[in-house]
Amino acid sequence: MLVVGGGNSAGQAAIYLAQQGSTVSIAIRGTDLTHSMSNYLIERIEADERITLLVSTEVRALAGHEHLDTVTLEHTPTAEHRTVPCTGLFCFIGADAATSWLCGALELDDKGFVLTDRSLPKHRPRRRHVRGTGTVPLRDVDSRDLRRR
Asked: What single-letter DSSP state applies at residue 115?
């Protein structure tokens, strides 16, 4: 599993996923978590062998056929790219949707938030899934999140 983002929500998600038995990587653009995450979460992440912190790292590509199979990451100081197996990606990228890295893979609204089936008119089925992709955006990038109203 890959968690993108360095705030408290990302830390809480990583801890939860690790508690469920997943190996988790957290990718952050910065060099550490101290500017964006509470100390108690940092301590829990550092103590959990199932969680790896990838600093100065950005997502560059997603690939798969029926579902997500791999993610290409860039270590920005060295410009080194590496493609790693990944079956789940969780984005916690803040109140402003930093979704340009999706490169047109998903449909976005005019503010850059991911459109889900819940964005359809009320007479249509309303789920959180992105139609036809198997993708479930979390609150930070879901256009219909209650915090966006």
From this structure: P
- At residue 143, does pLDDT exceed 70? no
Residues 6+ apart with CB under 8 A from 22: 1, 50, 88
Q: 3-state class of 29 per DSSP? A: coil
**Percent helix, strand and coil across the chain, each to the nearest 5:** 20, 30, 50
Residue pair 105/131 in contact by the 8 Å Cβ criterion: no
> Which of 121, 122, 95, 117 is closest to 106 using CA atoms?
117
Hey, how many other C-beta atoms are within 10 angstroms of the C-beta on 146?
7
Instruction: Measure the CA–CA gap between 74 and 83, rounded to whole angstroms.
Output: 9
Instruction: Write out pLDDT tens, residues 36-45.
Output: 999 999 999 9
Tell me the whole-structure pTM to 2 decimals: 0.68
75 contacts 41 by C-beta, under 8 angstroms: no
Give the number of other CB atoms < 10 A from CB of residue 79: 7
CA atoms within 13 A on the CB side of 108: 15
